[in-house]
Amino acid sequence: ELGIEIPDWQDLDTGGIVHFVARDLERLDLILERTALGQALVTTPPQTLFDLLMRPTQGGLPDEAIAAAKNLAARVRADELARVASAAGRVNAAVRKMVEQLKERDAGTG
Questions:
Q1: How far apart are CA 38 and CA 94, in angstroms?
Q2: Does residue 106 register a pLDDT over 60?
Q3: Chain mean pLDDT for the chain
Q4: Burial letters for 47-85: b for 16+ Cβ neighbours within 10 Å, e otherwise?
Q5: What's the pLDDT tens digit per position in 57-70?
Q6: Given CA atoms 32, 42, 31, 67 in this order, what sign does their dihedral have?
Q7: Given this model, what pLDDT does residue 9 score?
Q8: What are the helix (H) ranges across the chain?
Q9: Distance (Å, rounded) from C-alpha 29 to C-alpha 13?
Q10: CB–CB of 66/95 below 8 Å?
C-alpha cells in the first residue's frame, strides 16, 4: 500500500491521504472517467461499496469507511453488489448483510 499526501486537491479541501493498492484490474468493476489529470479507471459504486465492506480498516479509518459504505449503499442495487461479490469469489459477513439489506430495500420491504 502506498499513501501519498495531498495538501489541497479538488474535494480534499482540508488535505488528506490517497491510498493506492495494487489490484488485478481484470477482476474489478471499473469505468473510465475524465479527471483534472486526464482519463482514469475508477471503481464503480458497487465495487467501491464492496471494497469498503470487505476491508474497512485498509485506510486506517474504519468508522469513516463504514459511514461511507452506508452512504454509498443508497446508489447501489442488490443485484449490482451481488454481481461484484460473485466476481470477487469471496465475501465477508458485512457484504452478505448489505446484499440482504439492499434486496429488502429494492423489493420495497426495507
A1: 34
A2: yes
A3: 86
A4: bbbbbbbbebeebeeeeebeebbeebbeebebebbbebb
A5: 988 889 999 999 99
A6: negative
A7: 42
A8: 45-54, 62-72, 78-88, 93-106
A9: 28
A10: no
